[in-house]
Amino acid sequence: MTRVCRLTVLFLSLAVVSAYAVPRVTSVEPDAVAPGGSAVANGSDLDRAQVDDLYLTAGGSDILVKVTEQTADSITFEVPNSTEMKRYRLMLLTAGPGAAYMEQPVALEIVDEATAKQRAEEGEVELEIIDAEPAEPEN
């Protein structure tokens, strides 16, 4: 009887955990855009059932962005033209009862058009690790 109770509690616990998926953003591409530009926030549990809105946030200033596409793995959004140029964190407003704002550990930098274009052309920089020998001490 005790074994049946333990299994029942285990299955109920797993059902509750899976019913309350926590949305999270793990990256944003590109990491720098100009006002009026668009970007894609990537992560998990980002569909409309989990996330109502996406914001840029910095120092108490929260800016609602326009979501143009939303799936379980990504949110494509446009940055408003009036957005001040600086670094922002992404923040989600969860959906449903008990909705909450969740600041994410992902940043987006709002830059001028020329800088955004330059960064887009540069793409990702690959670092090469090379073996180096310690410098000889000078006498």
In short:
It is built from two helices and nine strands, in the order αβββββββββα. The protein is an alpha+beta fold and 139 residues long.
Assembly state (oligomeric): single chain
The strands making up the biggest β-sheet line up spatially as 2-9-8-4-5
- Going by CATH, the homologous superfamily would be Immunoglobulins
Name the CATH class. Mainly Beta
Parts with pLDDT < 50 across at least 5 consecutive residues: 9-18
Q: How is the biggest beta sheet arranged?
A: 5 strands, mixed
Task: Return the average pLDDT rounded to an integer.
Answer: 84
Number of strands: 9
Shape: extended
- Structural category is alpha+beta
Helix content: 10-25%
Number of domains as seen in the coordinates: 1
The second-level CATH architecture is: Sandwich
Rounded to the nearest angstrom, the distance between the terminal CA atoms is 80 Å
Description:
- This protein has 139 residues and is an alpha+beta fold.
- The chain has one domain (22-120): Immunoglobulins (Immunoglobulin-like, Sandwich), CATH 2.60.40.
- It is 20% helix and 40% strand.
- It contains two helices and nine strands.
- Strands 2-9-8-4-5 form a five-stranded mixed sheet. The protein has a four-stranded antiparallel sheet with strand order 1-3-7-6, with no helix packed on it.
- Strand 4 and strand 5 form a beta hairpin.
- The protein is extended, with a radius of gyration of 22 Å.
- The N and C termini lie far apart (80 Å).
- Mean pLDDT is 84; it is low at 9-18.
